């Protein structure tokens, strides 16, 4: 199956052709660990996970590398503002290293809860300072750098293709426009490769280098670490759209300038999660974490399901209502799979055997559903369409219960919303616990609807619950329920 992806470089859909047949090598910009990840960041990691799972599904060997930016001052392009890691350490009375470890652990817990598979390599910036210095030396030898005010800069004027990814018009780039003015720079787009002279007087993380004691600039870590693990040329670079104009533009400039070769073939960017109240950002504070959603009673996979509802190249609006809708839909989906599983067991068929095993041969009807699902996924990762296909196949009575359960398991290898576990019957305890909480919440909502004389909504809830096999009995002591 050909996989087509939208390449930001060139702005078009392209058939994915890896450098080495059967292997997908990809690098994703990872978290900056001076705070918790917010659910916007997590949307991007869910999207990256969907892509890696798609490659695995189509039998590619995946080599996925992700960095962890554990040096606070690498969070900004310029040498301005406050070092966020130091600020966080001071506020919490901890060392910068403790801060980085604490938030890094929290980040990986979030990934696990969201069924995001671990990349093959996770690498920390602080473990790769030597690689960064090596790359900067190559740039220096090839004449792409200059020293000014104690810092070593990359000279964008020397790199012919600068700004190609972001479609920057070099003629129109003017001094000072949208970039902080640094008197040391020859060009406003020039960026620091190595700092020795920082405004951060208490800089805790410093290393020796040919240019003096200091620390690397923001962009160099991704070039150095990706090349270290994936080679000087590789297939895919991932990240959020915010990285196109500066971070990824600069990564390309320094990587290609150092090697003299094209670097990454496909640049794939995920759009933002947005809120009505404005942009979600780590530095602005007041952002939503996965843990806060859990505290509100959501399962982390409800959030994953919510993310699957929007194509990765469109902005996704976050509201409580849409998250509620995602939760209800996911629960219905799991219910349906459990019921089909029970039906198949009653029919005496075996379910829950390994996905794709010979025992689970699919008939023509089921095959057609699977092909439609695969086509959606392979066409620029159209997950909303693929999810709709899962629903359609579960509702298709012409396909046997056993086959429908098998289809759900296979599709869940990419979607990873807990359907596979339900298909194996491995989540009964969790299911019943979650179920009870949700049923009771719906009953409370129905009672409210009745009090406010919204009988249409009250009836709708009763009918939905009936559909799920829950019968309500209204009596003098309130509403009781039982499974019918
Ligand atoms: P950071 O930790 O700030 O470097 O961000 C980690 C990843 O999250 C990057 O790939 C960003 O592009 C991405 N990101 C940041 N904000 C959002 C958002 N609101 N929605 C989706 N992705 C985001
Ligand atoms: Zn990066």
Name the helix and strand elements from N-terminus to C-terminus, one letter apiece.
EEEHEHHEHEEEEHEHEEHHEHHHHHHHEE
Q: What would you call the structural class?
A: alpha/beta
| Approximate helicity band | 40-55%
The best one-word shape is elongated
Low-confidence stretches: 74-80
What portion of residues belong to β-strands?
15-25%
Question: What top-tier CATH class of the largest domain fits best?
Answer: Alpha Beta
| Bound heterogens, unique | adenosine monophosphate, zinc ion
Query: If you average the pLDDT, what whole number results?
Result: 88
CATH fold annotation of the largest domain? Rossmann fold
**Cα separation of the termini:** 45 Å
CATH superfamily of the largest domain: HUPs
Provide a count of the helices.
Answer: 15
Per CATH, the architecture of the largest domain is 3-Layer(aba) Sandwich
What is the subunit organization of this protein?
single chain
- Domain module tally: 3
Compact description:
The chain has 484 residues and is of the alpha/beta class.
Structural key phrases:
single chain; 484 residues; alpha/beta; Rossmann fold; Four Helix Bundle (Hemerythrin (Met), subunit A); 3 domains; five-stranded parallel sheet; four-stranded antiparallel sheet; 15 helices; elongated; binds adenosine monophosphate; binds zinc ion
